[in-house]
């Protein structure tokens, strides 16, 4: 369902109408449980995809109605107004992809005081304003995924290199650290990391660094670039050097920005969290909270349907899964979404 | 010894340094001076060379254009958007479009500096941010990725013409135009006179406003051209394109002996300055120096080149250098 | 030799001098600024240093204030030899100067200007703020100094808010803040009104009473006679004479200033002036000059004499289109012309060789060739494409005509001597083939040899039928070269002389504004 809620005083009426319509359309009997998915803004493919996953979960659970809503512009004010109206309508749970971690805290606190289960997903609300936060992934999962992916592409053995953003980028360095730890495992003993270089997220520098890797390591078979500028530059360098099929590029990137490189053959597979899965898992977790089957306490493992058990971390942060793999079989489909 | 001959020697000195760096890198990685890599460097330096030549005109007239990189980003984004929405458009038209966008942006600088009389460093500092912001707005914060650009759009700078990429040829063309302009066109002479002594230029009837408008327009148009080339070469358009590139351009000029005080500079010097930077940028990844040291090394290289130049400006300093470098 | 060289017997100062200069020499590349300077100043005495432009007065001031160091000679203070290596040294010795152009910082306050470079500092250890600027002391001392000068100026006012006269008073207060025993006043009244000059007189009288020795430099004879006790005359870097002001009159002073240099041979060949090429009628602008009228004929050199600031260069700039006159008419070859910029002046074949060749004439970073052809580019290459052979031919022609001494025409101008630079600057304008050429101080600051070359060349020009305007502050040059001389004072033409009527005394008197 694609409920476009006007960002105005009519929100309440509109929402009530939509809810009523959904009510009639989805279930023959009155829905026992209503969950709202508040996205950053409407009309964005990424959130449409999240909603798609949420509806999938709602169908699997049964008796749950999921309503996607959000402001037309990605502002915290718009989200506050919408959450207020959701409170008035006595929704059972609210999943928020927050535009601002702190600005939303008062209103979500109010919702929780009224017994509404509030969680954030993808973009967090500060801890005091939600029961838990669902991250699409975490550094360990990303690092493991990147190594597994390149290993599969180059046939399990050979030399690889990493083309990162800046040498100071915290998240990139965390991923690189986990890549190194993963490589230390016996099953990856046949993969050799030649170098880690930094392209500073600049297309020209990334391109030169990629060229440098190709020149310095003639036996190089794979370049991992956990940044879109890096993966683009490395792919370009592989194509320009005529090394397609000999050297493969992999990493993290949006399908819409990577589709061309998959087509050129420079990229076999790349990864990113899948918004469908985010929406799916968040809906399952919200449902478990409403039913009292989970509390959201740190250390708890929550069953999220096909995504398996998701563990709640120290600060109420739950990492969903390893990133989702995109390759030539699905990239075009996802490129249309995000 | 005449200073003119000395100037030529200063450029010889820079050329010798370039050869020395190449030789040093080749010792570690012989492929560095292979034909393929030299071609790569020729292609890689083209954008910096033409941009530095345009900037040198601005600096020559005692100005500076900090907005060239932002102009590259905005014109490049405009060209990418055009290609996305009209992929059938012949590439020369896209090129012309990008150049015109750049020219319009350059004229904004020109008007601010020549007519509104804002010091160029302030005016272009402002337009630098303005153009970057517009780049973001032009695409609503989105990127234009490879598959959204037409094949011809991407292929153009890579076209092989007589064994050299078209991009490298554009660099060559830029050098030829610059040489002809500074040596054989009256306007080129007048620019130097204006930078060398604005008040004397005024007495000769040289119009400062017209010339300032001209140099910023040229810098803008060249930035526009480079905008297309950049986006096509790296197959991506986003608001961070060429971030910090203006400093590389200015560094190339300064290393090449263009005086920030105006009136002094040569095409040869500027081209060598640009080659020096590109050589360093390309050599560092190959020699396997820790990436954490790279930025510092580039900075040190720039400083040494500039110090060498500054000392060369004084005759006694020159003799010192020549004694230490007896090679001719 | 001048007829009336009255050299009074050197008087003995009443008191022991504070300051004594003897046999001071100072040379710059190509120019000898001082050959034999002598001077003494006693407490409470005002000494006038007189001489023409270029006599060496400014060099003496710079030596006394530690900006230049003499090549030879002795400088004694209280009978002790001293070396002044910097302005700070001069201050320590109690010598302070008020300069022609006030050296001041507009954005700083009056008190800060007065104590710049020697702020009062707080006592005590540094952790209690010792060594920091003592603002309170600075303000109160500034207030005292200003009160001493009977000036109603708040020490906290930013300098830019003051009038020119008030700035002068601040300059004086600054000099006094050094507890100056010798105060040098270099053209202190140049930009003051009559009433303000009167205030200055009062201040000088007060300083005299307090025992300060004052060196007074002025072109205005009435001031010299009103204020000074003694005079010292300089000419061409040499000491000429000294004496009591009471013993001389202005004619005698002028004779001593101008002296024998008039005997210098000028290569002036008599020419028969042709038709009128330039007529200027009642030219004026609101601030700099007014009611300037004159005519100029082919083959004629018209001299413009006057003191610095008399408005001569301003008239020339207006003729050349650098500035715009607001009143009056300019006719060239009988036709009225509007000249709004230098291009239009060149189109009317009128060119101007400006006074300050470093600033307004030469492009030092360019070659001789590029400098010489610069104003002719538009004429020679109307389509904007240069032809090197043509440029070289032009450069050769004028380079040789003006005897420019250089290794090659590609040599940079910065490598040439001042005289040769000046030849190139004149050459570049001649290369435009003008009918009228205005030379503003063409021989200022260049060596004797180059001077002679420029003079010879001027004669050659008028013989070829050009009309020349010579603006010069050197009396011998103006008198030796000109067919007629116009004397300007305070923006107006005060007198006109031709070869039969011109005399040094009359010209100097007219220029000083006396009657």
Can you describe what's shown?
- The complex is a heterotrimer of chains A (338), B (328) and C (515).
- Chain A has helices at 11-26, 45-61, 76-88, 105-113, 139-153, 170-183, 203-216, 228-240, 255-264, 275-291, 331-335, and strands at residues 33-38, 64-69, 93-96, 117-121, 132-135, 158-164, 191-198, 220-225, 248-251, 269-272, 301-303, 309-311, 317-319, 324-327.
- By secondary structure, chain A is of the alpha/beta class.
- The longest helix of chain A has 17 residues, at 45-61.
- The model of chain A is unreliable at 1-29 (pLDDT under 50).
- Chain B has a two-stranded antiparallel ribbon with strand order 1-2.
- In chain B, β1 and β2 form a beta hairpin.
- Chain C folds into 3 domains: 29-263, Rossmann fold; 264-349 and 435-515, 3-Layer(aba) Sandwich (Rossmann fold), CATH 3.40.50.300; 358-433, no CATH class.
- In chain C, α8 crosses α18 (504-511).
- Mean pLDDT of chain C is 85; it is low at 1-13.
- Classes of the chains: A alpha/beta (338), B mainly alpha (328), C alpha/beta (515).
Our count of domains of chain B comes out at 1
Percent strand of chain B equals under 5%
- Which oligomeric form is depicted? heterotrimer
What class would the helix/strand composition of chain B place it in? mainly alpha
Label the CATH architecture of chain B. Answer: Orthogonal Bundle
Strand order of the largest sheet of chain A: 2-1-3-4-5-13
**Uncertain segments of chain B:** 314-328
N/C terminus separation of chain A: 18 Å
For the record, the CATH class of the largest domain in chain A is Alpha Beta
CA-based shape of chain B: globular
Largest interface, with Cβ-Cβ < 8 Å?
Answer: A-B, 34 and 32 residues
The rounded Rg of chain A comes to: 22 Å
What composes the largest sheet of chain B? 2 strands, antiparallel
CATH class of chain B: Mainly Alpha
Number of strands of chain A: 14
Q: Using only CA atoms, what is the Rg of chain B? A: 20 Å
Q: Helicity of chain B, in percent?
A: over 70%
Q: CATH superfamily of the largest domain in chain A, please?
A: Response regulator
**Element-by-element helix/strand order of chain A:** HEHEHEHEEHEHEHEHEHEHEEEEH
What name does the CATH topology of chain B carry? ABC transporter involved in vitamin B12 uptake, BtuC
Biggest sheet descriptor of chain A: 6 strands, parallel
